[in-house]
Amino acid sequence: MALTVVFVYLGTMVWSAKISMSSSRTFPSNNFVGLTQYVRLFNNDRWIVSLQHLVVYGILFILACMIIGFLLAVFIDQKVTGEGVLRTIFLYPYAMSFVATGLVWQWMLNPTLGLQSVIQKLGFTSFQFDWIISQDKVMYTIVMATVWQASGLVMALLLAGLRGVDEEIWKAARIDGIPRWRVYLSIVLPMLAPSFATAFVLLFVAVIKLFDAVVAMTQGGPGTASEVPAKFIMDYLFGRANLGLASAASIVMLLTVAALVAPILYARHRALAVRGA
């Protein structure tokens, strides 16, 4: 098993790094060109635009998922009636593929067929919700669709953390007359730090991998208004037969994930080691 992991994961990473430093086009080449592909990559306006979109999307997506997921977890933690059904309803979207989610939201946001058309037919003729065809707002529609899908996962992770909070804390807070919001802010949230860290890592990886929802909803358009790095990579890999440039872009995204995730995993490992000691 260990050899499989080393070969499949580390081997493919090394191979991609090697190809990114070659002049490979349709087929791999051993013609070493150093960092030329990386220079070309960051001189490519389409790549820069895709990175800008990803930053905006990532900030909004992660913040919205964290907030909504936390609020849903707090709601369900109140031992509401039908808790099992509600958990299933909130978590179900995450079981759907991003392609299915994208297609559903594409139909809902279609100005001539979806929400805008339905509300206008109800008599509100001035109502407009054409964000999916607006260059300035199209990324927000992708945020909405993916937040709807991923918030349930955050809810499940944080709910598990909330269920681990000692009941004596709540009893002591009630006796002392401390408001519940203050208990959540001062005690519960710090205790949920490991759960938030896990959710953050999963959401951040999902941001880097964003592809299916964009292709299903907008195909990267209108124009390049919803272009993202994963789509850039796939287009240059298969559409433009530029294996070297696509590999360079892949390595850049890999290093981005490693640079952010590695410190978090290291901090968690240190914290667990301190607790164990």
Give a brief outline of the structure:
InterPro entries: ABC_transporter_permease, MetI-like, MetI-like_sf. The chain has 277 residues and is mainly α. Helices cover 74% and strands 0% of the residues.
Structural account:
The chain is mainly α and 277 residues long. The chain has a domain of 179 residues: Orthogonal Bundle (MetI-like fold), CATH 1.10.3720. 74% of the residues lie in helices and 0% in strands. It is built from 13 helices and no strands. Helix 3 runs parallel beside helix 7. The two termini are 30 Å apart. The relative contact order is 0.14. The model has no long low-confidence stretch (mean pLDDT 89).
How is the topology of this model organized?
Elements: H1 2-20, H2 36-42, H3 45-76, H4 83-95, H5 98-109, H6 115-121, H7 138-162, H8 167-176, H9 180-191, H10 193-208, H11 212-217, H12 229-239, H13 243-276
Helix pairs in contact: 1-13, 2-13, 3-7, 3-10, 4-7, 5-7, 7-10, 10-13, 12-13
Key phrases:
single chain; 277 residues; mainly alpha; MetI-like fold; 74% helix; flat
The level-1 CATH class of the domain at 51-229: Mainly Alpha
CATH topology of the domain at 51-229: MetI-like fold
Q: Residue share in helices?
A: over 70%
| % residues in beta strands | under 5%
Structural class: mainly alpha
State the total count of DSSP E strands: 0
